[in-house]
């Protein structure tokens, strides 16, 4: 084995190497813990789940489904720390509404009410806060939900990043609907509602001042109406997930592991816009791990797949829907990709996040 040195240098000391990826035995929080990948999963499994442990939380779905007085209520909460606050196609305000609305919709719920909590940094311009608040109000009206309660806190200058928002939401789950990752079954068709990767690349382009020849616009949008159209075909949708942090790759891995099944993806079938593919190629990113904020992935029984796909394509939020793979009995808990070159590769759960703070 060659010596790790050149004639003009001393041998390289591995102890001085640095790794751009967060190390898994870190004793402190690193950015990767918020990325929706393996580090996020470990944080939940090793810190939060033992502290809060209960059967409802253990399901680890986008929203919890609670039985209250004969009704089934979906309940979800999420925080938004996107940087910059404003980006092509959206901003922190509509992102906060759409993200929570979509988490509720992934349980099949019809969202009804949200809360909004603001953490403001001392010195932020009130015009910025008002712009974010107005965007939230417009997005809530577009999604058919009411922002019914909220809270405001202020932290000292230098102890925040302008504006952070936390939203929680509730919605009603129709009778006969049981959507959760544990229900994925071999034979299920895997459908995606449209082109992927737009949100993450849109945010990155503004944050880093990058130009790719065309403006890439975030896909942030509410998905409850699209889900309702799918449920009108059949209430027996097995799994729905909005592939936000960690992208499509993370969502598929979470579903495969929760259900104990495998997933086989067809690379050629995944709708990746040319501008996203070009940007990811330039930056060395995998579009399958780039965040989305207006897309869903669905696991649908094979006998209903064509009808559900047609209903998705007939809806404005699903015109680019595609059948991208299947749930299989082979390689349980794993996702594999049939590549365009005829090979097969494993699509693992990402360690952290390629693009931090995109939601």
**What is the top-level CATH class of the largest domain?**
Alpha Beta
- How confident is the prediction overall: mean pLDDT? 90
Return Rg in Å. 21 Å
Described by strand count, sense and barrel closure, the largest sheet is: 7 strands, mixed
Helices and strands, in N-to-C order? HHEEEEHEHEEEHHEHEHEHEEE
Quaternary:
single chain
**Residues in helix, %:** 25-40%
Low-confidence stretches: 1-23
Structural class: alpha+beta
Overall tally of structural domains: 2
Number of strands: 14
The tally of helices reads: 9
CATH topology of the largest domain: Phosphoribosyl-aminoimidazole Synthetase, Chain A, domain 2
Distance linking N and C termini: 45 Å
* Shape assignment: globular
User: Which strand-content bin applies to the residues?
Assistant: 15-25%
CATH superfamily of the largest domain: PurM-like C-terminal domain
**What is the second-level CATH architecture of the largest domain?**
Alpha-Beta Complex
Give, in spatial order, the strands making up the sheet with the most strands: 9-11-8-12-10-13-14
